[in-house]
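Sat 14:20. Reprocessing the chain from the morning session after the first attempt stalled halfway. Input below, unchanged.
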Amino acid sequence: MKLELLKCHGSGNDFLLIDELTNDLSFTEEERKDLAQLLCNRETGLGADGILYVLKSQSCDARMRVFNADGSEASMCGNGLRCVARFAHEVIGKDKLLIETMKANLEVEKTADIYKGIPTFKVEISPVSFDTADLPLQIENDTLINDKLPQLSDSLVFTALAVPNPHLVSIVTDDVLHSDVQEKVSKKVNSPNDLFPDGVNVSFIKPIEEGHIFVRTFERGVGFTNACGTAMSASTLVTCLNGINAVEQEISVYNNGGKVKCVVHHNQEEDQYKIDLIGNGTYVYQASVEIKLGDSTDFSLLSQENFDQETQLYSEFQEEVQSYLNNN
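Finished this time. Tokens:
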């Protein structure tokens, strides 16, 4: 079959988007997994961190499903949601939409450009839970907030939270950030282990100055990625819990792929959090491929059209971000 693909990215976290919103397409669960493993392979495929399937929804403007490069399905993806928000905005023609995801229906909105000429969207990250059963994390306590996990480190303290996909977050020094500690911890908790039976995203945070943090993430099912939207959101919340930043204030979150902005909201009556994730939804290219479903071992690239201007604008944005990081 001939399949149309849209390569896109949020903060350098890149995806192949498949339009089931306006196209009459149908895939089995096994085919969705196979397509992700085949097309996202950076050595033999087009290469991406995952596939975004944009589908019709009975309750919302559109539905998003996310399959990682290894074929596993993610419950949520903040960077991917911004790309889906842009696509749905352009197809449906609304600035504010409701997108169905695995665990929640989330509000998305076209907003002011994060950098000149870069399409920017604000997306809701919720629900947020600190209950270890929601990750799951197998320890005696019901929560892990600024505490040690001796199985992973003698010195680091961690916070575990689901947003709703699972995250393990630690605030670290520059020396630790540039060591191999994060890689060792991440590989341990994403291999067969007694703590996280389903694996977990692992983020290290380096505070820069008030209102500015750097986050690096090892993403479950992907590995080290340029950025992970839910990880940047979770990390921002952790800095607020630690008094480094404040709720209801816009916080700049830097990553290897660029920068986003986050705002943490706290409903004190119900003691519940939600986070606004604000950043780019950039198109890289459109492509047509020929693929035989059910025998997803090979494909042919029929055509590819690049969005050169968008790529150039994002490169300029990255240069500005890198200049800030170099000076701080």
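The helical segments are 29-39, 78-92, 174-177, 181-189, 229-241, 308-327.
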